[in-house]
Each structure stands twice: as structure tokens, then as C-alpha cells.
């Protein structure tokens, strides 16, 4: 029992290392996205969604592999490139960098708080999953019936709250329950999705506010 707890505690730095490497692969994918034809972006998005669904159902039986993690984040970087490119053109590099900096500050602050507080945020799990499903549903609705700028702003602020909650929940869960070595890639994927969606929500807010000025 003591040995198991020891291994779980030692796996926490491994999650952060895998998470950092995941961000590096996403950055490589972002750079590669410059050279990917626009016609391939949608098929890659479908592959990305398929991998997410596979990972969601796989987690009930076993954890994902590092190969799966890094492949997914690389593809995610490619599919994120058109979004970043759009905001670079419409907002300028300074606002995009401001969104990156804001995301880093929020993510790091929440991570530190979640791993140092004595509070248990496990109660957030069900609420966050319901909120995520609601965000997905609204996102699909927006695809067919675009929201107004005010509606999209509200949607983006809710996204910031939801994914901030996921950051709290995931880091706090690792602190409360520990992480086995087999779970490291899965937890790193969770953190990657947290920060990516937090960033995209903040980027949308900056974009809407800048367009209204």
C-alpha cells in the first residue's frame, strides 16, 4: 500500500512533463499547419474528434498511450492553426499574445491553488460534465444558426468558467487521489484539453471585444 501511494505521488511530475511535451507537439503541429492545405483541415478535425471519442470510451478499460497523446496533440496543433491565423489577421499579434499570456496566468494560478488548498473539488465533476455537454450543444447550434456577438461573448465567458473549473478539478483530483504511472498520458491529455479550450475561449473574448471597439 505504501509503495503504491509512493508511486502515485512520484507520477505527478511525470504528468507535468508529459503535458509540457504535449504542448511542444501541439506547437510543432501549429507550425506544420502553415503547410497543410485547407482542404485537409476538416478531415483532420474529424480524426481529432474520433480520437477524443476513442480516448473517452477507452478510459473505462485502460489508459491511452504516449504515442496516442503526442499524435493527438500534434493533429490538434494543425487544426488550431486556421483559428490562430484568423485572429492574427483580424486582431493582430499583440492581442493574440495577450490571450496566450492571460491563459498562462489563469491556468498556472488555478493549478497552484488546486494543488495547495485543503479543499476537495471532486464535487465539481458532475456539474462540469453537464456544463461541457451544454457548451458542445450550443457550439453545434452556433454552427448552423450563428449566435450574435453578445451571445458569443456570453458563450465564451461561460467557456472560461467551465474550463477553469476543469483545471481546478483535474489538478485537485491528482492531489487527492494520486496518479498511477499508467494514468499519466490520460491526465496529461486532460490538462492539454483544459488549457487549449481555456485559451480558445479567452481568444474569442478578446476578438469580440476588439471588434466592438
Automatic annotation (TrEMBL):
Keywords: Membrane, Transmembrane, Transmembrane helix. Its main location: membrane. Signal peptide: none annotated. It is found in: Membrane. GO terms for cellular component: plasma membrane. CDD domains: BI-1-like_bacterial. The chain crosses the membrane at residues 12-34, 40-58, 65-89, 95-114, 121-145, 151-171, 191-209. It is a multi-pass membrane protein. Belongs to the BI1 family. This is Membrane protein. It comes from Bacillus coahuilensis p1.1.43.
Amino acid at each position: 500500500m505504501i509503495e503504491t501511494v509512493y508511486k502515485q505521488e512520484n507520477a505527478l511530475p511525470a504528468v507535468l512533463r508529459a503535458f509540457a511535451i504535449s504542448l511542444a507537439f501541439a506547437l510543432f503541429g501549429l507550425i506544420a499547419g502553415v503547410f497543410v492545405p485547407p482542404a485537409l483541415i476538416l478531415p483532420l478535425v474529424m480524426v481529432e474528434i474520433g480520437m477524443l471519442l476513442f480516448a473517452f470510451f477507452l478510459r473505462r478499460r485502460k489508459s491511452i498511450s504516449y504515442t496516442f497523446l503526442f499524435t493527438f496533440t500534434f493533429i490538434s496543433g494543425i487544426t488550431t492553426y486556421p483559428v490562430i491565423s484568423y485572429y492574427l489577421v483580424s486582431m493582430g499579434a499583440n492581442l493574440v499574445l495577450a490571450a496566450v499570456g492571460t491563459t498562462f496566468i489563469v491556468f498556472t494560478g488555478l493549478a497552484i491553488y488546486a494543488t495547495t488548498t485543503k479543499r476537495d473539488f471532486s464535487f465539481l465533476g458532475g456539474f462540469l460534465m453537464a456544463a461541457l455537454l451544454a457548451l458542445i450543444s450550443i457550439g453545434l447550434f452556433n454552427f448552423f444558426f450563428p449566435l450574435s456577438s453578445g451571445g458569443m461573448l456570453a458563450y465564451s465567458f461561460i467557456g472560461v468558467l467551465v474550463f477553469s473549473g476543469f483545471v481546478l478539478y483535474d489538478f485537485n483530483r491528482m492531489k487527492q487521489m494520486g496518479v498511477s504511472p499508467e494514468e499519466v498520458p490520460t491526465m496529461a491529455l486532460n490538462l492539454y484539453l483544459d488549457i487549449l479550450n481555456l485559451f480558445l475561449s479567452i481568444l474569442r473574448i478578446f476578438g469580440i471585444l476588439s471588434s466592438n471597439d
